[in-house]
Design brief:
The complex is a heterodimer of chains A (261) and B (334). Chain A contains eight helices and 15 strands. Chain A is α/β, with parallel strands linked by helices and 261 residues long. In chain A, the strands form three sheets. A nine-stranded mixed β-sheet of chain A has the order 11-10-9-12-8-1-6-7-13, sandwiched between helices. In chain A, helix 2 crosses helix 5 and helix 3 crosses helix 4. Chain A is globular and about 65 Å long. Chain B has two domains: 181 residues, 3-Layer(aba) Sandwich (Rossmann fold), CATH 3.40.50; 123 residues, TPP-binding domain (Rossmann fold, 3-Layer(aba) Sandwich), CATH 3.40.50.1220. Chain B is elongated and about 60 Å long. Chain B has a seven-stranded parallel β-sheet, with helices on both faces. Classes of the chains: A alpha/beta (261), B alpha/beta (334).
Amino acid sequence: MRIVVSIKQVPETTEVKIDQAANRVDTEGLTRIINPYDTYALEEAIRIKEASGATVAVITCGPEKADESLREALAMGADEAFLLSDPAFDGSDPVATAYIVARGIEKCGPYDLVIAGRQAMDGSSGQVGPSLAEELGVPTVSFVRKIEELKDDYIRVQRMTDDGYDVLEGPLPMLITVVKEINEPRLPSLKGLMKAKRVTIPVWSAVDIGVDPARVGPAGSPTKLSKVAPPPPRAGGEMLEGTPEEQVRKLVARLKAAKVL
Amino acid sequence: MIPKAEAKNIWVLAEQRKGKLVNVSLEAVGLARNLAGSSSQEVWAVLLGKDVAGLAESLIQAGADVVLLAEDDRLAGFRDDPYVDYLTHLVGVYKPAAFIIGANSTGKSLAPRLATRLGTGLASDCVELSWDQADGLVATRPMYGGNVMATVLCPEARPQLASLRPKSAPRPVPDPSRKGRIEKADLSGVNVRDRVRLLEQVDTAGDQVKLEEADIIVSGGRGVGGPEKFSVIKGLADACKGAMGASRAAVDAGWVPYTHQVGQTGKTVSPKVYVACGISGAIQHLAGMKSSDIIVAINKNPDAPIFKVATLGIVGDLFEIVPMLTEAVKKEMG
């Protein structure tokens, strides 16, 4: 069994500055980490490897320094890593990004299962996983909270829904996106990190993976980010003072005035 | 992708689960009605399922001009394959300009796949949608856990896809005098790949109000102090006919199941009222509830960051305040 995990490198915080003059989010100088949601995907793949001897490949699309996150994934227990990096990829929207990652996955060889996190902490679109499945032409189950059974050509999973969960089964290859409930990710070992430093990670450009230049970057993306702004400030908060009885009475009065009680 | 010049009308996915329309679909129909405004666009509700024709009338009353009814055994329970295959076919036949899908667990899986299949753009988990004569759909969506609001356009590709965060638009008041028509979709000859089988739908929420659909959410955090003490939180949630939420700290401590977790790694909610009890207000928690209309914070620590986003704040002992509040709410709700 060969498993591919698609990850993203993101700033370690969501408290970012907005450069309104340039109309962009400024993440310069922030430490970058593996998207926390993707660590559940990595952990799940490594657990499958430990239980039944799979190979785990990890892939990402990003700037050259995204290779640090790939090394961290290797240190957690992944076997191979691939970086898709090309200035032409900058500014790709999720549809274009899924297209790039799909071509990268196809170049890195046959696979049985693709695992992705449910969304990235920065862009928060949650689009790339399901879009990637469509690009690869494989079935998807999103929001997987448990793999009940996995065989050479078959998977049965629990998918988180708004009411509880669904149990679904299907053939491999398949792509699943996973939620936090599925496991508790390990930290990379120090020894693993040392060893991962010496690994040569292939870096593939647009030409290497054969993407159509007209489908990547801002010009190849169907959506445009026309503006970024801070959220509207919340109306000034009011502290309700007094004895507990008075505080509760004031609160009920406010909620009645707002017609929510 | 369909030609821009030929694209018209605003579509909404009318999602039903076990024969009942989900709230966000009705919210989206109401929103689409406003967007269509006085322009010559129609609002189409695309109703997928098995034996669901009976739901068409409530979609018309909510604001749909046309209900496009697509019935098939394979559409009974949600699976990505048949939903995307049939919707792709319908979009090709009827050529909508925009298509709004609820950003719940179904829509978040379905919409990206549909966008890629159609070669069009998608704005995900939008909290606001407006209509511009030149650009069509103008979408506002949170990024970076709600610390950045992005305006997203889809200038050329059609239909413009958007998924709408539940509770971002008011639920329309049904208008029994509204007239609309029902169009039965011809699904014959559509090539459907049906690769994933749905074996079971387990409803762990039972009769409880779901977090995503609740008007009022009462959440507890580390300050609650233990699993049995969550009955205080649940008591207020029940009195409000609302849902119970929890912070990551409370879930990780094993006090409350993960399905109740609000925040970055849990659910994103935007109820009318969010009551945070004993929750300090870490940025990861705020990311999941900051778009609530009214935030009430009850916390012992006057310096807790939750008070920075709270509409109404009470510094006090939640075990004193919450039971008192529960009694007062019970009285108000009769």
